[in-house]
Write the structure tokens for this entry.
Amino acid sequence: MYTRYSLEQRKEFLEMNISGEYQYWDLIKYPKIIRNQCLKVHVYKILVDLRDMEIRQMPVVEQFFIGEHIAEVFKDHIKIAIVWNGLYHSRFFQSVATNRAALLRVFRSEKNAEIWLLRDKENEPVFDNSNH
């Protein structure tokens, strides 16, 4: 893997920090890791910090496929706040994912990400045990 991650449980959500060098085929594995951990601990909100990831280039087509994959894996069951402030900051994958009903937002600040994750009740996860 080009990246590595740490995952810890906070009081009301999980937090994942991903660092290393961005590679599409490496990053695309994380949504399933996140989903499996959320289901395991019964916590359906996560903050993903990508600020330590080195991203030289993330083509628009890769952002599109990442957004689609996130929406397919999480649906509206897991609320995800992503903190990303790199030079190639883009919200295109956010648009793709949210247009497909994912509960996802990209932020530059961890504090703003936490506020949205915990206080925006309008976008709460809709979890139905019969689907899993």
Q: What stands out?
A: The domain at 3-131 is CATH 3.30.750.24 (Transcription Regulator spoIIAA). The chain has one domain: 3-131. The mean pLDDT is 87. Strands lie at 3-9, 14-21, 45-54, 79-83, 103-107.
